[in-house]
């Protein structure tokens, strides 16, 4: 596709003439410019974006929506892409998808009902999770949660907190071994085929939100575990006989 033919709108993730996906660093992968496989551009639904911003929907994403866990029909996809309601809208959508190489079964039964989450494309999910990450960095009460946890578990000490941190680190590493197909990201697979398939199904059913949000909160758990270690050390110092307490 000729880049000079792209609509004159701001595309989410686009920086200058290149493309950068904020989720790439989080998932330990690289950005992949979705404009090379563009099916359509759609406006945002619930993310905090300006009305002029558009999100890329690729041919591969259309295939995941139609032939993946959701099994959405052409009418639902037309609604997701905010197409105007037409008497033959479903037929027009099927023709466009077939032209893009997306096979559609006319009589297939949907396995999901359209709602706001289903209406979100993967590009908008990326942006939504990016905004969630910023909120976690700025406002999540990590230290307070760590302190309350230590108070609720009086036998918890720095050693058990360190064990928790090690477990969370391993969990995060396992997640980062696999990046399912998500618009704007380079996929990568681990050596565990069953794990790859499970995460790919989960990601497809949530349009990438489940995968990216899980990694985001795993990293937040690392911060909480680290804060718990610090809190245990402070507690130990305050109860030491050398402090006079």
Give the overall average pLDDT.
Answer: 82
Strand numbers in spatial order across the main sheet: 1-5-4
Count of helical stretches: 10
Derived structural class: mainly alpha
How many angstroms does the end-to-end distance come to? 72 Å
How many whole angstroms does the radius of gyration measure? 22 Å
Helical residues, percent: 40-55%
As residue ranges, the low-confidence spans are 1-9
Number of domains: 2
Largest sheet, described in full?
A: 3 strands, mixed
What is the count of β-strands?
5
Overall 3D form: elongated
- Please trace the helix and strand order, writing H or E for each element: EEEHEEHHHHHHHHH
* Portion in beta strands: 5-15%
What this model shows, in words?
It is a single chain. The chain is mostly helical and 245 residues long. It folds into two domains: 3-117, no CATH class; 123-243, no CATH class. The protein has ten helices and five strands; from the N terminus they run E-E-E-H-E-E-H-H-H-H-H-H-H-H-H. It has a three-stranded mixed beta sheet. A hairpin with a 2-residue loop joins strand 2 (14-15) and strand 3 (18-19). Residues 1-9 have low confidence and may be disordered.
Write the SSE topology:
Blueprint: E1 10-11, E2 14-15, E3 18-19, H1 23-27, E4 38-43, E5 53-58, H2 59-67, H3 74-80, H4 89-99, H5 116-119, H6 122-139, H7 142-152, H8 158-176, H9 193-206, H10 209-238
Parallel strand pairs: 1-5
Antiparallel strand pairs: 2-3, 4-5
Helix pairs in contact: 3-4, 6-10, 7-10, 8-10, 9-10
């Amino acid at each position: 596709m000729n880049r000079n033919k792209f609509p004159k709108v701001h595309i989410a993730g686009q920086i200058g003439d290149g493309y950068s996906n904020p989720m790439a660093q989080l998932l330990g992968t690289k950005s992949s410019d979705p404009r090379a496989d563009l099916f359509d551009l759609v406006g945002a639904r619930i993310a905090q974006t300006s009305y002029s911003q558009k999100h890329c929907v690729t041919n591969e994403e259309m295939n995941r929506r139609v032939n993946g866990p959701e099994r959405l029909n052409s009418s639902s996809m037309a609604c997701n892409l905010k197409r105007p309601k037409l008497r033959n809208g479903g037929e027009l959508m099927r023709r466009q998808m077939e032209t893009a190489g997306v096979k559609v079964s006319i009589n297939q039964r949907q396995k999901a009902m359209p709602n706001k989450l289903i209406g979100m494309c993967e590009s908008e999910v990326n942006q939504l999770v990016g905004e969630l990450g910023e909120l976690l960095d700025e406002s999540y009460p990590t230290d307070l949660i760590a302190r309350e946890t230590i108070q609720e578990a009086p036998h918890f000490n720095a050693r058990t907190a360190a064990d928790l941190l090690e477990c969370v680190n391993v969990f995060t590493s396992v997640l980062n071994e696999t990046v399912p197909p998500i618009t704007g990201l380079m996929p990568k697979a681990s050596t565990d085929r069953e794990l790859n398939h499970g995460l790919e199904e989960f990601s497809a059913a949530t349009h990438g939100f489940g995968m990216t949000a899980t990694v985001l909160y795993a990293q937040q758990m690392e911060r909480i575990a680290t804060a718990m270690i610090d809190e245990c050390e402070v507690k130990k110092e305050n109860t030491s006989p050398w402090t006079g307490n």
